[in-house]
Predict the 3D structure of the following.
Amino acid sequence: MRRLTKIAGAALVVALTATACSSDGDDQTGAGDQLCPAEGDGPKIGLAYDVGGRGDRSFNDLAAAGVTQSVDELDATCTELAATANEPATARAERLRQLAEEGHDPIVAAGFVYTPEVTEVAGEYPETSFAVVDGAAEGDNVTNLSFAPQEGSFLVGVAAGLKTETDQVGFIGGVENFIIIPFAAGFEAGVEAVNPDATVEYRWLSDEGDDTAFNNAPGGETAANALYDGGADIVFHAAGGSGAGLFTAAEEQDKLAIGVDSDQYLSAPESQQEHILTSALKRVDVAVFEFVQAFVEGDVTTGFDVYDLARDGVGYATSGGQLDDIEDELEDYRQQIVDGEIEVPSEF
Amino acid sequence: MRRIVPGLVAPVLAFALALGVTLLVVVVSGASAGTFMSVVFDVPAERNVVNMLNNASMLYLSALAAAVGFRMGLFNIGVEGQYRIGVFFAAAFAGQAWLPGPLNVVVAILVAMLAGAAWAAIAGLLKVTRGVSEVISTIMLNAIAVSLTAYLLRQWGIRPENGGEIRTVPIEEGSRVPGFDIPFLPGAPNEVFGLAVLAVVAGIAFGVVINRTRFGFELRATGASPTAAVASGIDVRRKVVVAMLLSGGIAGLVGLPLLLGSTYTYTSTFQAGLGFTGIAVALLGRNNPWGIAVGAVLFAYLSEQATRLELLVGISSELVVVTQGVVVLAVVIAYEVAGRYRRAQEQREVAEKLAETPGTPGNQEVAR
């Protein structure tokens, strides 16, 4: 009997682990949802997500928004495939192959994790166009949709530098990796440009390899409270879902926060909106749409296609109107970056 | 006859139960049960079969690691952490190329086993010295393993020139283990991992050690009844530590086929989750090397069909995880039911025999 109890216990652990891994799909819109129409004369887009899939209110949703726009404006059809938590290492490549085999063209892979798989599969299907968001894949039929997030972050850094009253601002990063460091470096450079007296304090939620860092709202809240308690009055986050904790802390402490990727003022609860100064935009949706559009027109840029400030691939959000009084200064800096007079560092 | 029938009834019962529940979920989620069945039981393409074998080989090692502990009633939930530690140290070591070609591979395998065993030993020692339940400590150690490897990766890792994730130094050409083609799958573009043979070797070693050696007997005896084991002179505390070392050592091997046959480097996105799935496979395989092989292939098969399900039937690929969970539950339930039936049967037989023999107590006495 004792043995049975233990087996049941072990089974429970396994079950709990499995659900814990996939529970972020709770409010996720399922595969039955109509993102993709059955018919259309435009391209047949294949969209492969990373774990989390549509419904993450961030990266994956932005990629989906780009596809939605393609459906609306280019009469495209599409198929979206999500990843399963802890799937076999071969599953990502298999997902791309299945999409290619079913005649999808172009194929968009959302997330840098697809880099080696796109390199591999693009070689097997040379007639199909592939794109990887944030990727570094190789091949004649591969487009890496890259961004210059440091430029958008520079501008929100300028805003923070002008708005801070304590001359102390904070930054919360999910993990200190090559995706997040440009946000931090650009932010710091922006703050320094307008307010040399101000200091930037950093909080990293985890090391690389710990995916929970981007889905850890309590951790984000703890980090935010530490920064606010230490004297910062504005905190910028590049930590995905953990940013929700920052907004909670900003509301409780009556301080300011800066969102990331999408205009987070729009998706925040009303009580938090006045605490969201701005957001550093990373327009994954624009990149995906423009890639599909270029595909239709037959002039796809292969290799690295960088979406920077000049192309409105990155930028800052103005919802809420808190930046109205410094708009001229921001636009001035924006123009200087676009003209190449200011080169924003992407590393410390 | 009476012994064989329950033996067959349990797996058939489990399969029917699992299929029934899965179909119910399919229908409730609004998809067609018929299409689901035809896609799931469709013959996979040759390259999918190769993927399946590769995945199954790693699941097999993982389940074997869990089964070593299960056999003596020791619940090592920490295979996940142990294999992560093992594969990380193997990657870090092999990348340095201190040793030439194949020798580097052999030593890397030993490093992985040692690292996995050492990580498992922490839980074993805590159990025998402080009485800490291994279930709790191994789960905690899993979480620590994630942070530890992430930390060490940042200390020792390099960044590729064109940007990308931080990684251990890639293993040199000469120390990579080539894959091999399967004769009956001539059309597959991919190859079976060379180190998939580790699964076969480990499976045979497991069968021999558990069933044919004194050590294996003592292990099973301890699992069946710790008190009886102590009474017959078995040093249970020692057994606990040795079993954890063995379990962790096998766990260290889990990621190696992938590392030395495909990725050649450890990154933060190195495949996770094999350790947890391995527990389910061990339960499914009743901790028996043949049973585990069937379980590993079944799980790998289901995972391989996940993408097709989503693409062709429009069912979330997460459904496969549901199916895998249901299969394990069904097996546990079916064997428990079959076991109770068999025990009742045996008691009845004994009672009948005794009733026929004059001069012994009546059957009420025995059946009590």
Summary: Chain A touches chain B through 50 residues (CB under 8 Å). The domain at 149-282+318-338 of chain A is CATH 3.40.50.2300 (Rossmann fold). The two ends of chain A are 60 Å apart (CA to CA).
